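Researcher: Please translate sequence to structure tokens.
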Amino acid sequence: MLLYLGFSGKVVIDENGNRLPIYRLYGKSDGAENDRISLVIIETNGNNTTWKPQYANEYTAIWKNWGGQRPRSRPICDFDGSACPVPFMQQYLGVVIAVVIIGCGLICGALGLIYYVYRVKQNEKVNLDLQWQIPFMTLQKPKEKGEFAKSMRSITSSHSSTTSTRMTMESKHDSDRHKYYHLNADPIVAKVHKAKPVLTNSDFVELRFMKTLEHDNLNKFLGLSFDSPMFLSCWKYCSRGSLKDIIEAGSMSFDAFFMIALIRDVCEALYFIHNNSILQQHGHLTSKNCLVDDRWQIKVEFYGLKAIKAIEPRTMHSHLWSAPEIIRYGNMVGTKPGDIYSFAIICSEIVTKKAVWNISEIALSEEEIVYRVKKGGINPLRPSLNIDPSLDLNPSVLHLIRDCWTEEPDLRPKIDMVRSLLRAMQKGQ
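Model: Translation complete:
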């Protein structure tokens, strides 16, 4: 073997005179443009090949521009792509399509169900609204039966008698505030309202609730008539009339037990109203709005209808039942403490068996009474509680009445407390 240094570098000649090749692998340097560096020297000697790296780190010296990774000898998917996994969409395309179709179907079904429920609810609202909307043409005037029948109004016995104070529809006369009709053959009374409100969604909710409401001590609300010459609210007719009518007639004999029963009826009506999130308060409670049915049970009417009350002014007469703060500040809708005050005025009518404020016997006009109540003071004006000495009435009833009409609204008892006290009093009778 001959070894010498030639022009191109080391030269090796084997024993057969053949030059053994020496290969060099160069790479470009990061420096000058034409600069190069030796990376590997490969020498062959017969069947032997010697690999002499000239670098310290293969991955930084050779494969730096390849992300520091030596290229694979075979592609991941092989040269024909047979080694690659089948793409998800290609493998499960049918499943994906089925899931998408089912999902779209479920979404469409859910949307359809939601729309159906919405339409059902809307139709229910429309139907409920139709129930409280009374076409004027459906209201029929009572048939007249002669002057005697029209003027008949007999109060012939006490509450314990088999005969009783009853007023036929024919005996009732229309007034500026009330009209009498038949609706589907049933007698009704219609309140005439001078103001016609613009109803909001909350008013529709209230009216739907009132139409379906059934309570032992609330008179049945039948609906509103918009298309009549007058704006009317329609209520069930009670043949015995109002508590005010019965008291002013003066021929009824009330014992203490019956008085407590009447007071409790009014209290139960207020208890329901005050604890109902829709009605909240009555606002216009008077003995005129306390009707009496055939069983001598009080039925309070003109509850709710806040939209009407908010724009319809109170009369001077109705202010006889109004709390001082209601008169002072002109609260049209009313408050719960104001209802408690009105309740006390009604109770004073019951226990004294006199008209409100005993106005026929005192030397004060309605205007003077309302003015003095509004004025207030240390000793505010209130109705006298002169009861029949022979009446065995629990003195606690009078104390409760005075507590309920106290001047300060916050000091008046809540209806829950009034109800509890009346229950205890009735048990003690």
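Researcher: Any highlights?
Model: The longest strand covers residues 36-45.
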